[in-house]
Design a protein that fits this description.
alpha/beta; six-stranded mixed β-sheet; four-stranded parallel β-sheet; 18 helices; 39% helix; binds ligand F0G
Length: 451
């Protein structure tokens, strides 16, 4: 399959319908220079030779010695066609699996055969971020970048640092001091990023990194970067692939900076536009109660996408109140400890596309759900388990039926945050705690304990 020169095939477009300014993909701008809104990557589909059916992408497995066919991102390259092959970056991301899990299904009161878990923790840096970084670093290479930066609750920094060193670029990460799980911090340092711990939370870091990138001309790798979201669309393609090229009834995803939910909505919209799927699944986005801006705005303030005419005053008033109260978000799911999500508007669009719902779950519910994924599945980090806790709510409310097909996106690996896991089990913090037993240094006593 030949891909056309991307100048014809893809462009950037402001999501604000009153602006709708367009820019070519050769620019690294991250926000609309005209009005400051978010940017989308758009495609001229008539100029791209997209396979006639999704299963055609699966045939690329036969050619997996080609790194682009092996990549779980670039295998779907016609659907993210913004750069030529010579710029495409891959380190083997996207070899993740969709597991049907009946024991976890039982915990959330779903019927056997209905619950699927998408393990994005199996990516090279241990989280879903690698999907987005493969795409964004390709763009960075295309525009000739040598230094990049991000703000992070941990996984973005780990993933960016890994891709940066494999592309020979310098990377700088901004993290909130004491707000990042140890596994993630260890990766950023080990992969050679300059790590700056700021006395503040993620939202402070996000604000500062944008200012620093503008001042110093660094390439920004947060999900504000629309090229990242293009890579994250492939998580949905792989779920469809894992289900034999069929679409589930529901996708459940944790909500932090709202990049994933935004990307997933765009993925389904485009697939239907291209006639590659017939229906779009519903989506549930799950916040932690200590960081539940989206839940408040959607469920209490009734915020809507409204064809792009989002009521900015509701957002401004909400954020002004957070500032007045000196509010800082707090949850044990540190990955989603965010109160000013940058992709809020794109997420509202995704909710519109997918007839989405939003819920918030407590830390206790997250930790119990995480223990269940650990006990019966391959494990995950706390933020990922919010999906299972959220599904339990939606089952109890009757919004999701027991016989619908549900896919939960488990965004990060269990070893990302060993502290939360060890505390839960050792300190007997929950229903499913499995504490270690102290034993004397004595064979008979040990055997007594095992019997
Ligand atoms: N799950 C995990 C494990 C994450 O690391 C994140 C975000 C999310 C869920 C939320 O995803 O932002 O697309 O809604 N982590 C970012 C970071 C913020 O800096 O690593 P989102």
């Amino acid at each position: 399959m030949s891909l056309p020169k991307t100048a014809d095939a893809a462009y950037q477009k402001c999501i604000n319908p009153d602006c709708a300014a367009e820019f070519d993909c050769g620019q690294a701008i991250f926000k609309c220079p005209a009005c400051g809104e978010l940017l989308d990557i758009r495609y001229n589909w008539d100029k791209i030779e997209v396979p006639a059916k999704l299963s055609d992408f699966g045939k690329r497995w036969a050619n997996r010695k080609n790194p682009l066919d092996f990549s779980g991102v670039w295998r779907f390259r016609e659907l993210i066609n913004f750069c030529e092959d010579k710029y495409k970056v891959t380190i083997g991301e996207g070899q993740t699996i969709l597991q049907q899990n009946d024991l976890v299904a039982k915990y959330v009161d779903m019927k056997q055969g209905c619950l699927y878990l998408q393990y994005e923790g199996l990516n090279p840096s241990g989280s879903f971020k690698d999907n987005g970084m493969a795409a964004a670093f390709s763009h960075a290479k295309m525009v000739g970048v040598n230094s990049c930066a991000c703000a992070s609750t941990g996984n973005t920094s780990a993933s960016m640092a890994l891709y940066a060193h494999s592309c020979g670029m310098k990377s700088i990460v901004f993290i909130g001091s004491g707000r990042i799980a140890f596994g993630k911090l260890s990766q950023a340092m080990d992969y050679g990023a300059k790590t700056i711990q700021i006395r503040g939370d993620f939202d402070d870091c996000m604000r500062l990194v944008q200012a620093v990138c503008t001042k110093l001309g660094l390439y920004l790798l947060n999900s504000l970067n629309p090229f990242r979201l293009e890579g994250q669309k492939t998580i949905m393609y792989r779920i469809i692939e894992g289900m034999g090229w069929t679409v589930p009834d529901w996708i459940i995803v944790p909500g932090g900076n709202l990049g994933n939910s935004s990307a997933f909505g765009k993925a389904f919209y485009e697939l239907r536009q291209l006639g590659l799927i017939e229906r779009i699944p519903r989506m549930a986005i799950i916040n932690a109660t200590g960081a539940d801006t989206l839940t408040d705005l959607v469920n209490k303030k009734k915020m809507l996408w409204n064809n792009g005419k989002v009521d900015q005053k509701i957002i401004d008033d909400y954020y002004a109140d957070l500032t007045a109260r000196n509010f800082s978000p707090h949850t044990c799911a540190s990955a989603i400890e965010i109160s000013r999500p940058v992709n809020l508007k794109k997420c509202l669009r995704a909710i519109d596309i997918c007839n989405g719902v939003v819920r918030a779950v407590t830390d206790e519910e997250i930790c119990d759900a995480k223990a269940i994924v650990g006990k019966y599945g391959l494990g995950c980090e706390p933020a990922s388990a919010a999906t299972i806790a959220g599904l339990k709510h939606l089952r109890a409310e009757g919004i999701i039926s027991a016989d619908e097909q549900v896919a939960c996106v488990l965004t990060g690996h269990p070893l990302k945050d060993p502290n939360v896991t060890v505390n839960y089990h050792k300190e007997k913090q929950g229903e499913f705690s499995n504490p270690p037993v102290e034993a004397p240094n004595d064979l008979d006593e040990i055997i007594k304990l095992i019997k």
